[in-house]
Amino acid sequence: MRGIRVGQGSVQRDGTREGVPHARELGWDDSLYDGDGDGDREGNGGGSGGSGGGSGGGEDTAAGAGDPTRPEGAGDGAGGTDAAPESGEGGDGRQSRARRRRWRILRWAAAVLSLLILVTAGAGYLYYRHLNGNIRSGERANGTDGLTKPAANAVGQTPLNILLIGSDSRNKAENVALGGSRDSIGNPPLADVQMLVHVSADRKNASVVSIPRDTRVDIPECKDAKTGKIYPKTNTIINETLARGGPGCTLSTWENLTGVYIDHWMTIDFSGVVKMADAIGGVEVCVKDNIWDRPLPGVPGGSGLKLTAGPHQIKGKQALQWLRTRHAFVSDLGRAKAQHMYMNAMIRELQSQNVFTDTVRLTTLAEAATKSLEVSEEIGTVKQLYDLSMQLKSVPSNRITMTTMPWLTDPRNANHLVPREADAAKLWTMLRQDVAFDRNGGEADTGETAEKPAETLSKDPAADPADTGVIVRNGTGGAQSPVPGRAGDIAKLLNGKGFTLAKSDSEPSRQEKTTVSFPSADLEGDALAVAKALGIPAGSVKISTDVSGVTVVVGADWRSGSAYPKEARPEAGGIPDTADAINGSEKNACMDVYKPYRF
Known about the structure:
This protein has helices at 22-25, 38-46, 59-65, 89-134, 173-178, 247-258, 270-280, 316-324, 332-353, 359-372, 382-392, 421-432, 486-496, 524-534; strands spanning 136-138, 145-147, 160-167, 191-199, 206-210, 216-219, 222-223, 230-231, 234-237, 264-268, 283-287, 291-292, 306-307, 310-314, 373-376, 400-404, 407-409, 417-419, 470-475, 503-505, 515-518, 541-544, 550-555, 582-583. It has 14 helices and 24 strands. It is globular and about 110 Å long.
């Protein structure tokens, strides 16, 4: 009679015990896990005996007599009695079966673990795809003018510049519910918050500059990447750039104003701010008096922010109210300062949370960030955003400096501003030359940013100078009258350096800084070669559809002489007082409250 197989501890009367098929069906090799192999199985377990348990010591015999806990008469033998095992062989059988049981357990544990790993990996991949699917992205720059990316320093490092844009769009129901006029639903969004974050090439310090939204600037011609609509160049307030082709136009405008190459942009709207603030879990801010930013007679609007004097942890809608408060902080300039305080506190909070080593916190932030941000296309994946964040996380808060562009009241409109030229130019120079806004704990940074020769920055090889056409224009006018014949002087200088086709152009082109422009990528190498011949830095070389060939505009910064005046390297920490700087480590900073909005 054949024995009945019961689970994995089953026994079998006829001949040797058959191998358990379950693991084999999963692709496992049973022979690797059977103790001493088939010989052990046959010699100690089954033997050659029949149903009664002969000289081989059958499984049924060993299963009964050697187990002191087994009830009398509980054997599986033919006669219902348990035969005593022969000396030595019954013990070996029990050991063999124990080994096999252990191997089976290990096999099944490994199989289950493998399945868990596959399921987890699959879920991780699906979640990664989910996060990527959340991200919205767009063209980095869509203005007709653009700058050439600067060369790396002597050790291969380059600064990182990111433009942060806050949109006032009310084109989503949740944005309308969070504030603003319903009359603006469907209107193109405005860029009410604009901050340039500059991270040094060595990633040891960061400098931030805000431009108030009502600052009047030159906006280049921009093409909307989504609709194809072309917006002509104009001179108006900077917050309109977002409505003139999207974030790419805002970036092009900043490059045009500052001469700083900007790597990426990020845009966030009202609901995005709320999501991010909730994901962070609260940020500490402070006001010196009770504040309630509400409509007053003759002054409509208001963010609704209402706080008592002192420090407060804010998140969600209240964080958005803080960032939008303008009247109670006197003006857009006060709002910019409040935003800087919030940003500094947020960075300190994130650093204290060890976000990058806390999986739950990182997942929460990743979900919120990918749903909240729109980014330029070259950082439009989770991996690219993560890599970017890893570059930013190492900057200590005491090496972060927040500033506002120095300004003057616009002589054309008292409600608008214009850059305070000399002071603003100093900030832009420090950014271009990667000079820290702080003094590195009291010691000025005296390091130099090495620049490679201009022509090596382009993949496009420069043509022979004698075959390179160059137009030279006089842009020395501005605050002073233009220098007569200046374009002709520089054209002759180029002729003497082998650019025999260079000639002057009588078209006036007033501008502060000297530039070399080119219309398409195939002329980039030629433009850089011209810049090198004149000693003009590569950062002043730009692509522009306003020119038909390589064009030099001699600016007000080069009114005389044959050698281009090199910019003196600014001293670290030498930012002007008009920049209203705040250091990232200032934990006790509190905002002043305009008296009519106190309660």
